[in-house]
Amino acid sequence: MKITHLLRVYLTTVKLCFIQEAQYRFNFLVGLLLDFTHASLSLIFLQALFSKITAIAGWSFYEMVALFGVYQLAEAISSILFYEGLKDFAFSIRRGRLDLVLVKPVNTQFFVSTQKAHLRDFPTVVVGLALIIYGLSNLGTSFSFLRLPLFLYLFFLGFLSYYALRIFIITFNFWLPKVHNLRHLVHGVAGGTRFPIEAYGRKTGAFLTFVLPLAVIVSFPTKALLGKASFWHLPFALMVALFSLYLSNRFFRFALRYYTSAGG
Amino acid sequence: MCYSSTVKKYLTVFSLSLQDAFSERGEAFIWVILDFLGPLMMLFVFLAIYQGGEQEIAGFNLSQMLTYYLGVMIINAVATAHSDWDLFRLIAQGELSNFLIKPLGVFSTQLLGNVSWKILKGAFLCPFLIIIFFFFRRFLTFSLTPPLVLGLVVSLALAYFLYFLNSFILGSLTLFFEDPSNFINLNEMLRTLFSGAWLPLVFFPPFIQRLAAFLPYRLLYDFPLKVMTGKISFTDLLWGLAWQVFWIVALFLLYRVIWQRGVRRYSAYGG
């Protein structure tokens, strides 16, 4: 399956989603405003928390702001690309609508993941970037733009790992078609990446780095921005991303064998 | 209509709701995990903060802060309601017609349905609470007197009714607006900010605390949690319970007005 073909399919999907969302313009704009406000609540939360404390596991307020910004960015991009597509996955399996996807000349996992784009989350991308810039610009140390390629590399790999985690969890819907909230479990688990891995203590932190490597999603890229990344983060993040993508894809293809259509 | 047939109606609907909840036990289990994960993260975060040298933060020692978030887990599982989205789906898909012709009103049906889910979620929460108690036992102490225990149970029950009324009213807006999801999401944001579910309200600036005092959201989490952590006098406990009753009565009257006007405009098509 050529990458250009997949890209063409995806861009068509985005165009159709935009037309659909913009049908009700006022509702769309109000939704954008609410999503923007909701994303901004994280700054209010941090300011409230840091009004009484000075650090969380050695992370200062502005470092935490940058961390939250990276989390928002990862969440928003993931939501725009995959949320709506995977939202109705359980319904698709239960009602046999997956048949229509299986017969299409596109990779099933790709189409299921990207069939709808949730464009309303675009303001959250803006908020995420604003939080990162706000955090970094107030750190009191000079920022080196040489950190950007390292950040982009680790952010991309962390994003791929997050996608693999999503696919892995929602694949259980093939055996549990009545459980519609598995997609929420992804958010719940990933929500832990809003805080630095060091905050979870030595044993739990090690678990969240080497066993269930959530640390690669947000902590590693943020440390790159802050100039605190270690050299081993680079190969480790690559290994985690490739392995988790492979594992999630194999698991998805294995689970497809258990899909039975619900008829017409 | 005699009393026994009325009770039988409610018991039948409750029994059916409980069976329905058990048939969706997988989903209930996932919701319990989700209700548990957020406060669990805060437990770890505050443990790290206190172990960093803080003795007391905003008037909370470590034990009180951990108890606070244990309380958030319990409230999340047993004192919340999500009739807003249920009603939105029922009305938008025309399925409300089915419930309007039944001998038990939509309000009662939704309430009984929610209660049955709370029972199931409460049962699922127990093993998680045991695990938390085990791992954090070194840091936890409880100082609840019998009047506070009674006050806690009553405040949790009233918080549930308040939460339910709030969500039912928002769901009822579907009778007036094709898509009230923006209202529901706005309410959720306000609840997040003013209820104390995220952080104790004392962390927030004075103007937010003053605003929160006039809104019902703090009665959902902040007030029961003050009782649970023992950070409330008996007089304030009685005042808090009185405020909960006041808001329940006010929201109940609002629900009656909205529902009666909304049902008159309701129409559904198809078989």
Describe the SSE topology:
The complex is a heterodimer of chains A (264) and B (271).
Chain A (H helix, E strand, L loop, with lengths): L2 H19 L3 H26 L10 H27 L1 H6 L3 H5 L5 H7 L7 H16 L9 H24 L11 H9 L10 H11 L7 H8 L6 H24 L8
Helix pairs in contact in A: 2-3, 2-7, 3-6, 3-7, 3-8, 3-11, 8-9, 8-11, 8-12
Chain B lengths: L2 H21 L1 H27 L10 H17 L4 H10 L3 H5 L5 H31 L9 H27 L8 H14 L11 H9 L7 H7 L5 H32 L6
Helix pairs in contact in B: 1-6, 2-3, 2-6, 3-6, 3-10, 4-7, 7-10, 7-11
Summarize the structure in words.
The complex is a heterodimer of chains A (264) and B (271). The two termini of chain A are 29 Å apart. Chain A is mainly alpha-helical and 264 residues long. In chain A, helix 3 crosses helix 8 (147-170) and helix 8 packs antiparallel against helix 11. Chain A has twelve helices and no strands. In chain A, 39% of the residues are buried. By secondary structure, chain B is an all-alpha fold. In chain B, 74% of the residues lie in helices and 0% in strands. In chain B, helix 1 packs across helix 6 (106-136) and helix 7 packs parallel to helix 11. Chain B is globular. Chain B starts with a helix and ends in a 6-residue tail after the last helix.
Keywords:
heterodimer, A: 264 residues, mainly alpha, B: 271 residues, 11 helices, 0% strand
Please identify the structural class of chain B as seen in this structure.
mainly alpha
Q: How many DSSP E strands of chain A?
A: 0
Shape of chain B: globular
Parts with pLDDT < 50 across at least 5 consecutive residues of chain B: none
Uncertain residue segments of chain A: none
Strand content of chain A: under 5%
Short note summarizing the structure:
The complex is a heterodimer of chains A (264) and B (271). Chain A has 12 helices and no strands.
